[in-house]
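Hey,
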Amino acid sequence: MNLNETLKIVPNPNCHKGCNQEKRDEIIENELCNDAVSVIDQLPIRCVGEWSIHKIYMLVQYFGIFSQGMKKKWNGKLNYIEICCGPGRCINRKIGEEFNGTALAIIEHSACHYLGKVLFFDSNEKVVTALNQRIELRGIRNARALLGDYYNDSDICMKIGQEVHPNGLNLVFIDPTDCSVPFQLVKSIKKKLSNTDLIINLASMTDFNRNVGNALLNPEKYSKLINKYNRFLDHAGFFNDIENLELAQQKNFLELRRKFRTTYTENLKRLGYQYFDFTSVNGFYDILFATGHEKGLEFWEKAQKIGYDGQRKLF
């Protein structure tokens, strides 16, 4: 895959490049830059770190294999759904290059026409409007962006049900910036669409890693944080576990992250998922893949054999 061509990477001269957190707080609203728009279509762009492009590459690699491999087996009932989609174009705040986000990377993929429906959800109306404009500019008829707050799982699932055949095969990508998407949303989507593979961005090395020590050692002060993680895990026992408290006292965050991921996958097993893989992205993301079928894991492992740097993995 030629990354520059696939993601349409171009310099954006209006980016401040390398601005610190204080400057970003001034010019960024809901992750959208107020000082720069896309040089390609003059629509809003999402300010991201340099590691984001690795995540997009990983998704695109898998999407191509998944859609090509399943296109003849589901009779037009193959679908892609993304939660926390963004406006479609991103900008690397370190070097000032803009590129396709996950949504545009999917709809511009040559395999997109194999899909029955392509649905994108975001809670920001400005984001949804920009992405729909980009979809319309490309003449993509099977895709649309919808307003959807992941705290309102019934609303998102109602909208999914209006668009997607319940007996199809679905790839769902959930891409928040922190560990705030309630597990209830995952449960509701799985109930609505039984044949669903998941790719989830677990911010266990950023959000969770920064806050878990405070949450375990000062539970009264950080009760709101604990409630957020409890909703994310759908499990209230993590912060009442004496072993986890001892790990926090020892500052053993590596083991706490491992247990956090294990707790999450154990809940997924209760929904019928049997095969899992975690891929670390530059120390910022844990990308979780979950499927109920061995073939899905086979596709995922195949997609991981060529890394972002173009190097082929031996195992």
